[in-house]
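Q: RDD family protein, please. Structure only.
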Amino acid sequence: MSLERNMTYSAPPASDAYSGVLSRRVLAFIFDYIVIAILWVPAAVLLFFVGIATLGLAFFLYPVLYFIVAALYFGFSLGGSAQASPGMRAMGLRMLRTDGLRIDFLTALVHLALFWLFNSLLTPLILLVGLFTDRKRLLHDFLIGAVVVREEARY
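A: Structure for RDD family protein:
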């Protein structure tokens, strides 16, 4: 309870914090998934050697390796001190929880899983939700209690 309770963050009330967030999120998404695709290559090579060392037992991870790399990438970046993925940082964005606590590794993983679920079911509609909400929140943001703000508007 100690340190995390003392380090609270809140979304700024100004509309500047949310202007241009949706377009920046799309660009951050493209950036992040290019980086994940690049990181997938050395992970596949590493898994090949681990598979040889385990006499083929690790080869069953190949079909889900991209998801494992993406989960680690977003879990450590969103759950880290920056509270943003590298793509989000490049676009000047940051994710905050509406209850004021920091986003942890598990919350970042749940956010990613909900994104994949809703994206596979409602592909264009998840972005349409952001057009009609006051803080440009998407459906999976509502479910975990998060908001994405522009970094420069935070100060």
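A: Brief note, in case it's useful. The first helix runs from residue 2 to 6.
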